[in-house]
Write a structure and sequence with these properties.
This protein is α/β, with parallel strands linked by helices. It folds into two domains: 195 residues, 3-Layer(aba) Sandwich (Rossmann fold); 163 residues, Glycogen Phosphorylase B (Rossmann fold, 3-Layer(aba) Sandwich), CATH 3.40.50. Helix content is 41%, strand content 15%. Strands 3-2-1-4-5-6-7 form a seven-stranded parallel β-sheet, with helices on both faces. The two termini are 37 Å apart.
Length: 392
């Protein structure tokens, strides 16, 4: 079986980290894969070298980037078509919106099946509503060229098929992200104390986010929350672990708001487990999410969480057990939740957290899905409708 994985960029986000963990295991099952990818954005930690070190073949497409560039996107699709013709895959598996658009409109000879993974969606929260609705309409059109869909959580699946009507529910499989074994092992109190002493100054409680520093993760709102919490708990400190295209604006806002004694920025860090354990409360206040790996890790490590109830977050964080869920951009609710967790620990858990799949489990599910997809009748790659979904 030959599979072309197409992804816009291999930055240190959930989609790329999942691919990195799973691809060597798919190879061991006899799946020959080439990862076709574009260029990461400034300030993003690119993982291409780690893929190559793991024995995964990567083809760079310099024309492919996240930003919308009509002429550049045409060039990117042509470059992708050339690489697909060279590789001659049985199946194309795309990730992220731009790569999914190009991979499902690319012309390629032969009976090639196409699978697309939704690591969340951009229809609500990421852009103004008219643009989000236009993207949903486009995804309905692309569904005509897609044999199978994958969603990373049940909530994302429900939104895709029931709210936005991208595709019927029976064509969308749920395959959660990967929780690496080293991030799943239960920590000891001594390990938590050692992580705090090693990574953060010995001042009051630390509240932090492990995420890309980009608009959809709401770093401006993170600073709003930091200011408001500090007014109630002057000893509280905040830290952002990660980097991205919003770095300059984030640092400028810290200076403008005079928060340099309250908020730290440390960029990308390799000791992910240690940084989770060093926090008293972990935040993820995004405007939209799929099934964020940072929260999979945090809940597995029993770090109290305050998170926006968007995408698959509510499938992952049990309100009052793993932490607190709040509405997006709900300042008072987020502040109250953080202060409550600092002042009163969560009750002892009576049930284990929802865990992501192990790399082996994820690889097994993907391999079975590929087999099923190759055995079914193909989607209409000519562009003629095979679904009859009315615009929302």
């Amino acid at each position: 079986m030959r599979v072309a994985r197409v992804i816009t960029r291999l930055n240190r986000g959930g989609p790329a980290r999942t691919l990195l963990a799973v691809e060597p295991l798919l190879a061991a099952r006899g799946v020959e894969t080439v990862v076709m990818t574009g260029v990461s954005e400034p300030r993003e930690d690119d993982l291409v070298e780690e893929f190559v070190a793991a024995g995964v073949k990567v083809v760079r497409l310099p024309e492919l980037c996240r930003a919308v560039r009509p002429f550049g996107d045409i060039a990117a699709r042509r470059a992708l078509e050339r690489q697909l013709a060279k590789f001659a895959p049985d199946l194309i598996h795309s990730h992220t919106f731009k790569a999914g658009l190009l991979a499902r409109t690319a012309r390629i000879d032969g009976d090639v099946r196409r699978v697309h993974t939704f690591h969340g969606h951009l229809f609500r929260g990421a852009f103004p509503r008219p643009l989000g609705s236009a993207m949903a309409w486009l995804e309905r059109r692309l569904a005509r060229r897609t044999d199978r869909f994958i969603a990373v959580s049940e909530q994302v699946r429900r939104e895709l098929c029931e709210e936005w009507r991208v595709a019927p529910c029976d064509r969308i499989d749920v395959v959660p992200g990967v929780l690496l074994p080293e991030l799943a092992a239960k920590p000891t109190p001594a390990e938590r104390a050692a992580a705090r002493g090693r990574l953060l100054p010995a001042v009051g409680p630390w509240i932090g986010t492990l995420a890309r520093l980009t608009r959809i993760k709401a770093p401006d709102f993170f600073l709003d929350v930091a200011q408001a919490v500090r007014a109630i708990r002057p000893d509280a400190r905040f830290v952002w672990i990660g980097d991205g295209d919003a770095r300059e604006r984030f640092l400028a806002e810290i200076a403008r708001r005079r928060l340099s004694e309250t908020v730290r920025f440390v960029g990308w860090q390799s000791d992910v487990r240690g940084w989770h354990l060093a926090l008293d409360v972990e935040l993820l206040l995004s405007d939209q999410e799929g099934l964020p790996l940072s929260l999979l890790e945090a809940t597995a490590l029993e770090v109290p969480v305050v998170a926006s109830a968007v995408g698959g977050v509510a499938d992952l964080v049990r309100d009052g057990i793993d932490g607190r869920l709040v509405a997006p951009r709900a300042l008072h609710a987020a502040v109250d939740a953080i202060v409550a967790l600092l002042e009163q620990p969560l009750p002892r858990r009576t049930a284990p957290p929802l865990r992501g799949l192990s790399p082996a489990e994820h690889a097994g599910r993907l391999h079975a899905l590929y087999d099923r997809t190759l055995a079914q009748s193909p989607a209409d790659s000519s562009g003629h409708p095979v679904l009859h979904l009315e615009p929302r």
